[in-house]
Predict the 3D structure of the following.
Amino acid sequence: MTTDSIPVQTTDPRPGLAKKARKDTSSGGRRRRLFRHPGAGRQHHAGPVAYILLGIAALFSLFPLYWTMVAASTDNTRVTQTPPPFLPGPHLLENLGKAWQDAALGKAMLNSLIVAGVIALSTVLFATLAGFAFAKLRFKGRNILLMLVIGTMMVPPQLGVVPLFMMMTELGWGQKLPAVIFPTLVSAVGVFFMRQYLSEALPDELVEAGRVDGAHSLRIFWSIVLPIARPPMAVLFMITFVHAWNDFFWPFIVLDMTNPTVPVALTQLSAGYVRDQSLIMAGALLGTLPLLALFVVFGRQIVGGIMQGAVKG
């Protein structure tokens, strides 16, 4: 018998099973179509109620800044009256100039820019390095070290003021900017933030592929981790910069009026028996303007980083 004479089976040898499978597939597709939300996968648009609620929230958020400008544009007598003013007055430029001169805000802003910039850059760098190590590197005692880092967040910073002040004095950094910068070069919150992001966003396969190609840990950090970690690094930089700019407690202890930051310099405006509230508000408005400018320039990257982190989480 030749091979041409052998009958070739072209149909399913088990027609009952094939029919059942087709039926199950067909019923499963109907179920998926039945339970699929009609708006799934489409871009949703906010309705008028959402816009109204967002507008109200924006007004409540911007009102303190608006009233600070109103108070800075009037005189002290009008600010302390009841009811307080809600419309701008004619003395804004006059009060801004006087506050700038009386509090020496030029040097204070330069000092705050140096302090906040160095602290933000060092925190982003060290927190990203530590976050990568805790998230993707395997070494002995990793979990214990991470628990110790997280545990430092539970300790109030006021408990370490006395030994820290003695240490800065021994180093000869009293009344100098390094006394403000060096104790806050990295934060436990930043390390935990970057560790959580890299644990979710950085696949282990990318790190292993770098190892296979012969890259060491610093090379993997530079070529793989940094491009992925840019959005949370921008968010951490902004948060750290704002916190360092507004920090008052520790700079007030180690600095004086000859070398102040902005919050320390603003205390000069409230000295004396009679406090000029409009002048204090003018100084606070000047101290807030650099932060508003920073948010206007980098706001898109910061919001994008927050949203990307929220989606990945």
Summary: The two ends are 68 Å apart (CA to CA). The CA atoms of residues 269 and 275 lie 8 Å apart. Confidence is low (pLDDT under 50) at residues 1-15, 24-29.
